Amino acid sequence: MSIRVGILGYGNLGKGVESAIAQNDDMELKAVFTRRNPENVKVRTAGVKVLQADELSHMQDELDVLILCGGSATDLPVQTPQYASMYNVVDSFDTHARIPEHFAAVDAAAKKAGKVSLISCGWDPGMFSLNRLYANCVLPEGKDYTFWGKGVSQGHSDAVRRIEGVKDCRQYTIPVEKAVEAVRSGSNPELTTREKHTRECFVVAEEGADLAKIENEIKTMPNYFSDYDTTVHFITEEEMKRDHSGLPHGGMVIRTGVTGMEKEHKHVIEYSLKLDSNPEFTGSVIVAYARAVSRMNKEGMSGCKTVFDVAPAYLSPKSAEELRAHML
Amino acid sequence: MSIRVGILGYGNLGKGVESAIAQNDDMELKAVFTRRNPENVKVRTAGVKVLQADELSHMQDELDVLILCGGSATDLPVQTPQYASMYNVVDSFDTHARIPEHFAAVDAAAKKAGKVSLISCGWDPGMFSLNRLYANCVLPEGKDYTFWGKGVSQGHSDAVRRIEGVKDCRQYTIPVEKAVEAVRSGSNPELTTREKHTRECFVVAEEGADLAKIENEIKTMPNYFSDYDTTVHFITEEEMKRDHSGLPHGGMVIRTGVTGMEKEHKHVIEYSLKLDSNPEFTGSVIVAYARAVSRMNKEGMSGCKTVFDVAPAYLSPKSAEELRAHML
């Protein structure tokens, strides 16, 4: 029997989850839930209902797992504990500093309900976290490096859009190739924020806007840009649409370390992602973990989990025998 | 309390396990067991006893986990089931085709004993297998590629040493850079054995040996060399010692795949290793899994496991809270 999945929230991530479900024969999208008027939401999977989020109050028998596709700032801190008390759930909560309190709230709700929740799923946090953990366990004496990009940062794009005179912006985060090469060489460099990444902004300005002022406001914006070397390009709306409509991303997690009685041998472990679509890849990771969550709950587990707590075999539709015979 | 570890077999891998234990504060090497005369085995960790393998018949109360460092051809098929019936064990069994039968024998012994065994640990099988599995679960529609090297293949070096007139050999397996680049580009190439790797042999010949005959025997050797482009260099014993005494290795696992309702987005997941010492890195992976095996058994689990069955958090000496706060 298929694993029956619900999606709450139909933005970029919700759509990425939808297309990932379509690629997994053992999963079935039962319904998309929205806080908007369902009549205004058109999903792409034939026969799938769009329902008011309120309907989730009584659909426990129809869903094996609910995937929460809201934002980390205001949606998930409320939604994940709320729905963890009724469903197996997966979210992509990515506010690193608040993970401990989010975990505690979700864990209490999930344990009480006898359900499994998995938080902070995707690629960072998610696959990158896993690779940091594995590499740290294998090479206890070493140093971690994470690079992001080249890819679109939604948060930075939004920050620029809030500047007066800016109509639209797409911000790319770009790893500095020289820094990446230094890390890969095993030389264990100490790298500043500025040395690791550059930022590039493509901006559509309002007619008559003061371009020099916009450029200066971007480059000096604290937290977002002032610690980086930033390049600003002004382009037309047509160019934005033609050249910057995708949401590519990616990056690398690298750990370098030593082994040997004299610590005489160096090792480099690198995990890298090149993604044409950040939300679709994130959705694909989430759907694999939705399978795991549903299975773990069927085996009697409950409470809040992260990717660290899930044995890899739970992610696969294949049997343990098949995995041992063909993937080990 | 420390996790008390025994090592059976003190070759390259046993030594790699020894140095890895020294890098992990929560692990303690209790004894090295050997089938040789213990007086002829000198270990490098102060205060550690060297004992006859027979002593393992009565040391169950002194070891939390026994690491089996024998070979896959004849040692492990006998040793792992034997000791799985007495200890938590970890081995590095790497004869892919025989993993299912090895698993069955070890699983039966471990279940009966109420112990946990983990087989086929290291980097391939091991970390490479994990990365194949994760990448397949995240990108169900895609293609897998594994490249090995640049590194020393012990099996191929041994095969050349058996040729008449050969005193010593070191064989390097080298990935073809053009093939790697084609895979990374996402073009999904179909690659023959010859297109993926080349082989390079450094040979010390006996005095007066027929070098042309040796070179020809190497290049035409079925299974080992005939499907590859092979280069043979004749060198002196001094050059062998000076330039080829290390055991470097590494490689890459790459999966390329598509997502989207129209499968319109490409993604590349790559995991790569650059290792100065193959046996020390393998030993480091094994020691992390020895920690996991000891813990899983303390929680009441039993039976044979592989890396697919171990939740990543078990590998780390850090608490779940620390991992969530600092690695997620």
TrEMBL record, chains A, B:
The reaction(s) this protein catalyses: meso-2,6-diaminopimelate + NADP(+) + H2O = (S)-2-amino-6-oxoheptanedioate + NH4(+) + NADPH + H(+)
Annotated pathway: Amino-acid biosynthesis; L-lysine biosynthesis via DAP pathway; DL-2,6-diaminopimelate from (S)-tetrahydrodipicolinate: step 1/1
Alphabetical keyword list: Amino-acid biosynthesis, Diaminopimelate biosynthesis, Lysine biosynthesis, NADP, Oxidoreductase
InterPro entries the record matches: Diaminopimelate_DH_Ddh, Meso-DAP_DH_C, NAD(P)-bd_dom_sf
Gene Ontology MF terms in the entry: diaminopimelate dehydrogenase activity
UniProt entry tagged with the keyword Transferase: no
Domain Meso-diaminopimelate D-dehydrogenase C-terminal: 122-277
EC number per UniProt: 1.4.1.16
Subunit structure: Homodimer.
Family (UniProt): Belongs to the diaminopimelate dehydrogenase family.
Protein name: Meso-diaminopimelate D-dehydrogenase
